Structures are given as structure tokens and as C-alpha cells.
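Table S2 (continued). Query chain:
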Amino acid sequence: MGKNLHPSILPYWERALRGHSNVNSFERLSYSDDYIYRIQRKRGQDIIILASDAYRFGLSDFFTRNEVIANGTMIYLARPESDYSLDVADAAKQEEVTIGKLKEILGALNLDRHWTWESEDRKDKREWAKKN
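Corresponding output:
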């Protein structure tokens, strides 16, 4: 992981946060190696989110992530072309961490137990995996 994102990605992410119905405020925390945000929600506890620059977020990325990403946090795959495996989604769920692309993260921000939510994209991914 790291800070290798196109300059347009974080402003886009921050606009999405500003427009979210359950986000009261957010701040970017100071970490030299990662983009980390603290989100203060209108309903629910604050959430820490790592904005990942990974193209393909794998199990090794998950298990070597920044130490602040623990129970109750989220991993946002910030690159539009990013992807993750269902193995990573399952490992994250066991540790009460949500992982996903923009639409998945924005949807999960509405839930207290966000790691239990399965987006339509993830459900489709599971269906496709069963068939192949």
C-alpha cells in the first residue's frame, strides 16, 4: 500500500464524503505511508478508512495493512480499476473490516455493523464465482 494515487482521486473521494447523508465531517490523518481518514458520522460511531492505492488488493495486502485498520474500520479501494478477491472480503468480514470500491464504502457508511453488508457488486461476484 502507499500513496500512489492520481491527484484527482482524493478530491473526488472527499466530495463524495461531503455529500453523504450520514457523514457529519471527516479529517485526513497524518500517516506518511497511507491515506487514512477519520469519518464522523451523524448516526453511528466514527469510522477510520484507509484509501488504498492497490490495483489488486490481495490477502497479503490485507494482512500487512496499516495497523490502524482493525475491527470496525474500512478499506476503500480508491483506484477505479482496483479489485479484490472474495477471500479478502471474507477475511475482512471475520475481522469486522469492510473492504470495497466507492459505491460499496458509501453504502456501508450507513450501517453500524457495516462489515456484514454484502453489496450487489459483491453478490454478483459470488454468483459468478459459483458458476465458474
